[in-house]
Amino acid sequence: MNRRSFMTSLAAAVAWPDISRARSTTKISTIGFLGLAPASAWSSEIEALRAGLRDLGYMEGQNIAIEFRWASSVGDMPALARGLVELNVDVIVAPASTQVAPVRKATSSIPIIFAQHADPVGTGDVASLAHPGGNVTGVSMVLTELAAKGLEILKEAVPSIMRVGVLWNPTAPSHLQVVNQLKIAATSLGLQLIMTPVRETADLSDAFAVLRQEHADGFIVPPSPLTNSQVASLAELELQHRLPGMFGNKDNVRAGGLMSYGADFDYMYRHAATYIGKVLQGEKPADLPVEQASKYYLILNLKTAKALGTELSATVVARADEVIE
């Protein structure tokens, strides 16, 4: 072996243990995730979150681990939130106000990232959109204003509607602001609202029975983790009771619901990954402005309209972003 080959081999031999040691000491950051079961209802959003993380170079099993906790009911969330805190995770994803509330009670130091918060300022989860303050930030869908617009579109799509049921969730902190905004919108639209609280999955059938008893002409469902996890059941109940409904999540329409107006959940979850990346790089949630979704989509299901015997306004159909036939 000549001198050059020997020196090259020696350098490689010396370098190899350093490379091995570097790989073995690579820090794996742990991300906690608090969701509402079933997990299968969130497969698209979770994949969007993972894709966003991969785009930033975060790979599960290599430099990050995700600890998922799925609550069977909202009442299970405080204990699960405390469990994630006890694991000493680096950041917790609490997608909506329903999850943010118990996680905030469990920790004031671990960064909390939301992905579909309805009204983070209105609930007090952040001080302001530009300067969140505390340990919470993320992506908001501005539901308070969005729900009022959805009610307006429902009335325009089905002009004969006069009495509208509101399937709102008292366990979602943001829904109090949503309900107030819907009442203001209903007054200007000349509509009567039938307030129908839905706290858990078992309440859905009873809620529709109430709407039928109160002679509702239609209904609106402001999105929450509960209703987002029950898209098939809601579509079935809509058809069973033959009531045209407006949802805030496109998945409701793809499952058979009549129409939706809202932000793209997949985009919001994918973008929430950028907040996770910044926090893992040492930035503080208090200094990361909340981003509001800027694009909203109107989705219609004409197959469902036909099954309901509902003729949708041609002007609304014409401006839909997606029409399912």
Average pLDDT score: 92
Order of helices and strands: HEHEHEHEEHEHEHEHHEHEHEEHHE
> Assembly type of the shown chains?
single chain
Kindly report the spatial arrangement of strands forming the biggest sheet: 7-6-8-9-10-12-13
Strand count: 13
- Write down the overall geometry: elongated
Question: What this model shows, in words?
Answer:
The chain has helices at residues 3-24, 43-55, 77-86, 97-106, 143-157, 175-189, 203-213, 225-228, 231-241, 250-254, 265-280, 302-308, 314-318, and strands at residues 29-36, 64-71, 91-93, 112-117, 136-140, 163-168, 192-197, 218-221, 245-247, 259-263, 291-292, 296-301, 322-324. It is of the alpha/beta class and 325 residues long. The chain folds into two domains: 29-141 and 265-294, 3-Layer(aba) Sandwich (Rossmann fold), CATH 3.40.50.2300; 143-264 and 297-324, Rossmann fold (3-Layer(aba) Sandwich). Helix 10 (250-254) links the parallel strand 9 and strand 10 (259-263). Helix 5 packs parallel to helix 6 and helix 7 (203-213) runs parallel beside helix 9 (231-241). The longest helix has 22 residues, at 3-24.
